[in-house]
Design goal:
337 residues; mainly alpha
């Protein structure tokens, strides 16, 4: 058992976390005369290390996920979802959301297509909630920072929010709250060409290049904010605002994430810096969920498809779910960190 634990710690720290890279960068900066113990030197080290680490993981994860995703084009996904009914359909939709693009804005066009195709509204909302909040990339990235226990609980609870949220929307019978152009939209089934392994690899690499170009600015901004928090904001301030002394830390973090627009890759360095400064685990994860699920740009896009009542219910369900998850993580943090 001890051997397996040692192997896992090596994978988490050296393969996923790339701690060796941090040492290499630190030694390189020291050789160049940069004092990495100073604020500026520490910020430079944090920035270079996190940008390289995240972009390497991003490349690998997007390639693997896109290869899997090549087996689930929209038409096939729609057919799979159409075979299930009730809560089972919501569960399948939430699971399929884990192999879709990384941000909510990328998922909304698929949501509109599925709704136009006549899939139950609750099922499409389970997909919409799950897609940005919980993906295979988030599982690996969270493992690299917080460990496998936190990562698995995060993913499970994210899926639970997606299933419960979609089920509640289904039970409320809000089909008339979808904009008319979607309800009256026509959907045409297009025969899907069977791809070869070479085609799938080519598709996966194209997705890597496209997504990397789109995500890179947010990664740079996220790492920059993380470096600032890590080296310039006093630990006492973070602890007072987001630590155990503030019972409203989870609520503050969830609301603070709304104006931002980023995916899991952009939020990880901020979350890492906040946790290192003394923020509670639940606060950090609520912030990540708030950014990826309730970002203002995605809400504005969703408003084009959903009327105010449906949009408000969606926001309320996600917000309450994220806050509950945040406090739950705070309660169980000592047992899983």
């Amino acid at each position: 058992m001890e051997v397996l634990r040692s192997i896992w710690l090596f994978i988490q720290n050296q393969v996923l976390g790339m701690k060796w890279l941090n040492e290499v960068i630190g030694n390189g900066l020291n050789a160049l005369g940069v004092d990495i113990t100073s604020r500026w030197g520490g910020s430079i080290e944090f920035f270079i290390y996190d940008v390289i680490k995240i972009m390497v993981l991003l490349t690998f994860l997007i390639f693997m996920i896109s290869y899997i995703q090549s087996y689930f084009p929209p038409e096939r996904t729609k057919r799979i979802l159409g075979r299930f009914h009730g809560v089972g359909a919501n569960c399948i939709a939430a699971l399929l959301g884990t192999v879709t693009p990384f941000c909510s804005c990328s998922s909304i066009p698929l949501f509109i297509g599925f709704t136009s195709a006549g899939l139950p509204l609750g099922v499409t909302f389970s997909f919409l909630i799950s897609s940005p909040m919980v993906d295979l990339g988030s599982l690996v990235l969270l493992m690299s920072i917080f460990g496998w226990k936190v990562a698995i609980v995060y993913v499970v609870l994210g899926l639970v929010i997606a299933v419960i949220g979609g089920t509640m929307i289904e039970k409320l019978h809000l089909e008339n709250e979808v904009e008319e152009f979607i309800r009256k939209g026509k959907n045409v089934d297009i025969p899907q060409e069977e791809l070869t392994v070479k085609n799938r690899m080519s598709f996966a690499w194209e997705q890597v290049v496209t997504t990397a170009k789109k995500v890179a600015p947010y990664v740079l901004v996220g790492v920059g904010i993380g470096a600032f928090i890590h080296n310039w904001i006093p630990e006492e301030f973070i602890v007072k605002l987001l630590g155990t002394g503030n019972p409203f830390g989870v609520v503050i973090a969830t609301i603070a994430g709304v104006p931002m627009y980023a995916d899991i890759f952009g939020t990880i360095p901020i979350a890492e810096a906040l946790l290192a400064k003394g923020a509670q685990l639940g606060v950090v994860l609520s912030f990540m969920m708030g950014v990826t699920t309730l970002s203002l740009p995605s809400i504005i896009m969703l408003r084009k498809a959903a009327k105010p009542k449906l949009l408000g219910i969606f926001i309320a369900i996600c917000t309450i779910g994220i806050i509950v998850v945040g406090y739950f993580f705070n309660a169980i943090a000592p047992a899983i960190i």
